[in-house]
Amino acid sequence: MSAAPGEFGGRGSRGAGMSAAPGEFGESAWGATASGLWPDTADLLPGPVLDTVRSGAVEADRSGRISAAGLAALRGASWPGLAIPTEFGGAGAGVLRCCAAQRRLAAADPALAVAVNMHLFSTGLMVEQWRRRADVSWMLLEAVATQNRLVASAFAEPSLGGSVVRSTLRARRGPRGWVLSGRKSPCSLAADADLACLQAQSHPDDGPERLLVILLPTTADGVSVDRTWNTLGMRGSGSDTLRLQDCEVPDDLVFYTGPVGQDDDVVAAGVIWFVLTSTACYLGVLDAALALVRTLTARGRIAHLDASRAELPSVQAVAGEHLARVLTLESACAATASAMDAGADPERLLPAVLGLKQHAAEVLPAAIGALAEVCGGVSLSRAAGLERLWRDMQAIRFHPPTGLATRQFLGRRGLGLPAGLDLDETAPGLRALTAASSIDSPTQSPTEPTTEPSPTTLSRSS
């Protein structure tokens, strides 16, 4: 097929009029290399659906609006029911199959994949709530699957620091349940979803503060959307601002309650769903980038060496160094997803998953940057397509739990200190948890030497 204007080989590029190489706009040979780690998902995402999604990616990036055709194609494939058990009308895909599907979807349109990944997070969280609490949340799952409803995950807030276990959105008791006022931003699918899954924090006047997780129709009174999304990358994710003003929520739409600032097995499981599926999205972005890199390095020649860039050992070494790390990440993502599907305790699995998230945020941007560099200056050309994927990849650093909270969690766990998903920079929570855990511990004997330096020692060393 001929490349469309704005894609590599299109009007205005050095390769104008040249036909695209096999795999240039589809899945690369690297996808085949990594495919042994991932199950086949052609039944979940048929080829024609991916073709439609892929065809809208460039325009979605240019306009800064989500691809309506791509979203319609996913609805037509009953994608909203992907993670919902079959007994409730869904496809029954576990974490591993959802990751594999998201990886393929992101290779076609990264922004659309990240947007609908928020739906997967919300439905995955509801699935875990139902499995672990055996409550009536199955009715919400059934409604999403049988009515083909899309769910926006409205968990991000401007002043949370990436926390997922508290909220600045306050919920007050009203005559028919809860009344919400506040804003959620950025919120992917805000203007396109049928429902919004969000967390709120109960007001102190209504008793001990609690974290509430709510499934709310986006057509409810008091819900509005501001078009605020205009960014470097993931421009076509529709991550606008969701506003709530005196929005009434009946109690039966609150499917989870828990203590503020603390996580449990349901929260841990939900975070695992999000981290693994979102990491798979960015692995798909890298796969799409590598397909373009193969074409660019094969066509780009170094005149005095009479060789293509791909033939140069130095280029091969750079690619090999970074792709070794990427393949390690692919393996870790698939393995932890399989462990989750096999029934692993999410609270025990969480540190490994957060370590994977931190690794992905370092490895994948570095890989796409190095691969772009070996292609030469053509990487900067919009016609080549690689710069769009580079921009999209940068968003991996900003998903909650953010790097600050993740590194703190892992560092405290490694040092034997209490750790949670809440960013605790001033450590009031750490002091409280440490004090509580030491109540039943023996105190230090007055005759035992202290390991802390004395004020005199500090003075001399300063």
TrEMBL record:
Enzyme class: oxidoreductase
Domain Acyl-CoA dehydrogenase/oxidase N-terminal: residue ranges: 54-120
Signal peptide: none
Pathway: Sulfur metabolism; dibenzothiophene degradation
Catalytic reaction(s) noted: dibenzothiophene + 2 FMNH2 + 2 O2 = dibenzothiophene 5,5-dioxide + 2 FMN + 2 H2O + 2 H(+); dibenzothiophene 5-oxide + FMNH2 + O2 = dibenzothiophene 5,5-dioxide + FMN + H2O + H(+); dibenzothiophene + FMNH2 + O2 = dibenzothiophene 5-oxide + FMN + H2O + H(+)
Domain of life the protein comes from: Bacteria
Gene3D superfamilies, alphabetized: Acyl-CoA dehydrogenase/oxidase, N-terminal domain, Butyryl-CoA Dehydrogenase, subunit A, domain 2, Butyryl-CoA Dehydrogenase, subunit A, domain 3
Stored SUPFAM superfamilies: Acyl-CoA dehydrogenase C-terminal domain-like, Acyl-CoA dehydrogenase NM domain-like
Annotated protein name in UniProt: Dibenzothiophene monooxygenase
Pfam families tied to this protein: Acyl-CoA_dh_2, Acyl-CoA_dh_M, Acyl-CoA_dh_N
